[in-house]
Design brief:
The chain contains 15 helices and eleven strands. It is α+β, with helices and mostly antiparallel strands. A hairpin with a 2-residue loop joins strand 9 and strand 10.
Amino acid sequence: MRCPRWSLVFLASFLALLACVRANAYVDLDYIVAVVDDDVVLASELMGRIDSVRKQMHAANMEVPPNDVLVSQILERLIMERIQLQMGQRAGVKIDDETLTKALDGIAAQNKMTLDEFTQALAREGIDYREFREDIRREMIIARVQRGRVNGRVYISDEEINAFLASPLGKATLSDEYRVGHILLAVADDAPGDVVAAAQAKANELFEALKNGADFRKTAVANSADSHALEGGDLGWKKPGELPSLFAEQVLDMQVGQTLAPIRSGSGFHIVQLLDKRGASTEVVEQTLASHILVKPSEIRTEEEAKILIDDIYQRIQKGEAFADLARMYSEDPGSALAGGDLGWSEPDKFVPEFADVMRSMKIGEISQPFRSTMGWHILEVRERRQQDMSDEARRNQAIRALHNRRYEEELQEWLREIRDEAFVEIRLNQDKDKDKKG
């Protein structure tokens, strides 16, 4: 079917109609507005997206750009989506319904709703839930395509990591955060000596009570003249540079729960307690020294046969045979079998959930009964546990993440420019009037 001819005049008409007619009124005018490689962008899609963006900007009290700018920006966005979706299709990238529903559950939770409540809220806004689901599916496909293509372009050297850690920006980015409690006993700078003495005596009394375990928040509510008194004196999470200069340096050397002796200033006496601390320097993890034996069902060993074998191995351990010898003989974990099943020092979270749960529940020196995980049948021996300071490693990992995120954004924009330049794109919004368009 041949569609009516478009002309340069159409663009002006198109823009004028946007302000007063909804997208669904254009079903009969569903022209191709852009050809993108093997796909097209239709007028109805462009109109629908413009309508949606206008609503969002009005709801946020944002100024809507001129029509020609808005159309150009949104059409370009649709073109870039088409390019990436086609790349995802060729690469076999798919988002199954279960994954999509979990993502929607997360979106609903961010809005403090259940998924049913969120669906009803969309309906009240005139948004079709099924269309919304498919929009999110497309966004997730595009995100996967971007990660797959761009992550491989990001390389961070050891020299860059070390330089970042030593730089002012790195130190500020990776510095710990401190949650400080503050009590102020207000005393005017020119107050009589007896008033100052009484205030100091009161401050010393509160300090002693806090050292002996008194609740800081209750003490602050009852005594502090600070503006945060009703929040229990909690100043919230602060970077070192955001802490009040009066006690910033002392806080950096404090242990969680420690209280500073009263500090005198022109406004009175200050009592400070470090309520909490977070950041790389607090990274202490529990590690477990363990060994295991793994037996896997396979094409030549049924699930029942695997269970019989692991039970037999367990009985032999109970009768006194060496765990390490049996691991070398039977374990099908190539990473640990030759070492007698030794997994080394490790955190439970590095293993599959079923394995991690058993590891956490066991006592030192204990050997588990056979249990099943997604990997197969296991027998686990826990030999020792320790608290390991991971602060240096944590700081380095944070530096890598910070550098990666920054480099990723740079590489993403470069990659988007490249794929746009390489794609075949034909804009048909304002083509010559003598050229026919096919719907």
